[in-house]
Design goal:
single chain; seven-stranded antiparallel β-sheet
């Protein structure tokens, strides 16, 4: 299968999950998850509130701007970026020389992480609470589980009504192939740091 096609599927799936609450299963990701929610009487986790919301509006139509070239290099030796329209919102895909990728996108005005939390008890894909990202709540999740194949998706609530999504795809030779979720969080940390600075 064409690599660019696979990357496009992964990025679109991530944005679709956050936007449309595609059903996913409650499984544990390869990266450790931190406690940032509590279970209500129903047994379902409730999405945490974002205590210090960020204004990400300047990045929504230009998600490539969340990483400088220096940050991209530090995250995973990423060297080139490409912006695509996407099915839900613009997507920026950074790549390294081996075609490993990190994709970013924003979903404003759609319920933030609450939309993702609606998917926690479904029967396909995966859902799990992720560690907070620079103080902002996050979840791992996608309509299909590619964590065993070098992929991972994380959504970070930058406000109660907006998330930034980060999807990574790594080939077997990559050192990140066996633990893609840790790299997804690292990339999300760099992006949120940029948003916080307003750069």
């Amino acid at each position: 299968m064409n690599r660019a096609f696979v990357v496009g599927i992964a990025a679109t799936a991530l944005l679709t999950l956050a936007a449309c609450s595609t059903p996913v299963d409650n499984q544990t990701p390869s990266a450790s998850s931190g406690p940032s929610t509590s279970a209500p009487a129903s047994g379902k986790l409730a999405a945490p509130q974002v205590a210090n919301p960020l204004d990400a509006s300047k990045f929504e139509q230009d998600p490539c701007a969340v990483l400088s070239q220096a940050q991209a290099s530090q995250v995973a030796n990423l060297i080139t970026s490409r912006k695509a329209t996407g099915d839900v919102a613009p997507i920026c895909t950074w790549s390294d020389t081996d075609h490993n990728t990190v994709a970013f996108g924003f979903i404003p005005g759609n319920g933030g992480l609450s939309t993702s939390y609606k998917s926690q008890d479904s029967k396909s894909g995966y859902f799990a609470v992720a560690p907070d990202v620079v103080g902002y709540p996050a979840v791992y999740g996608a309509p299909y589980d590619d964590r065993g194949d070098g992929g991972c998706q994380v959504a970070v609530g930058v406000s109660n009504d907006e998330v930034i999504t980060v999807g990574v795809t790594f080939r077997k030779p990559s050192p990140y192939y066996s633990d893609p979720c840790s790299l997804a969080v690292k990339a999300a940390e760099a992006a949120v740091t940029t948003i916080k600075s307003g750069a």
